[in-house]
Amino acid sequence: MYHNPVLLQPSVDGLNIQTSGIYVDVTFGGGGHSRAILSALGAQGRLVAFDQDPDAARNVPDDPRFQFVPSNFCHLKKFLRYHDACPVDGILADLGVSSFQFDTAGRGFSHRFEGALDMRMNPAQELTAARIVNEYPVERLAQLFYHYGDLPNGRQIAQLIDRHRPAELHTTKELSELVAPLLPHGKENKVLSQIFQALRIEVNDELGVLRNFLSQTVEVLRPGGRLVVISYHSLEDRLVKNFMKSGNFEGNVEKDFYGNPLSPFRLITKKVQTPDDQEIEENSRARSAKLRIAEKI
Q1: Which listed CATH number (1.10.150.170, 3.90.79.10, 1.10.150.120, 3.20.20.80) goes with 106-204?
Q2: Angle between helices 188-204 and 206-220 (to 10 degrees)
Q3: What is the pTM assigned to this prediction?
Q4: Rounded distance between C-alpha atoms, residue 225 and residue 243, angstroms
Q5: CB atoms < 10 A from the CB of 111, how many?
Q6: Domain boundaries, the chain
Q7: 220-271, pLDDT tens digit by residue?
Q8: Which of 8, 100, 245, 258 is surrounded by the fewest CB atoms within 10 Å?
Q9: What architecture (CATH level 2) is domain 8-99+206-296?
Q10: Quick one: DSSP state of residue 184?
Q11: How far apart are CA 278 and CA 111, in angstroms?
């Protein structure tokens, strides 16, 4: 199982699919959301899907309405123009790491398996988690753990790693064992997950990519087009929430001379949507998912 798509029906419903429209799935992965979109499209509809992970290409459907782009979705506008697919009627982003990626030990995304300290979404890029823990200055490491992992003891973790140098860390097991003395009793897995999350966000520049992507959606969506985003941690969700509300990442709504808001979007979901108890029971990784939907004005 590559990935059990999270919030499948609410997210696809949120696109308000028109049978002859053009839609984009910027996080193709196992193709679960894409297949649901295709099933709602007519013969004249189109779907463009992005994924930088070469493993995702194995899941591409044989469908003339489908176009796969093996690239990071930060290049959204460029490739949509290249494939003559602008403007579009809807964009869906499921920002989570796939089950396949988490469960493939060699990718290094999870502390549950021993593997290389990698964590690259795109295996062709140079920066890995190993380079970060072995080469980043202690101050930069501390900030990374504090801001991206929400770890109050981020400085202690960074200092412990620094004291281990010049010996290098190469595997998930080596890192987990090194930081074990700083893990609170009963919360070992939770804190390890936060450490790994912080490294993964840095390796893949996830927040920078998200900002870049969201900014481009205003340019490629047609008026009335929908933006549907599923996020999994507060840093992502805050950016999405602010951008949909105001068109900027600070959440500051600008107003015209008459006091009318100037946001490029109209909120479809005034409150965040989350999975119900049944979905969480069937797919524990859906627990932290948050769905937001907005419409281009």
Answers
A1: 1.10.150.170
A2: 60
A3: 0.95
A4: 15
A5: 19
A6: 8-99+206-296, 106-204
A7: 999 999 999 999 999 999 999 999 999 999 999 999 898 888 899 999 999 9
A8: 258
A9: 3-Layer(aba) Sandwich (3.40)
A10: P
A11: 27
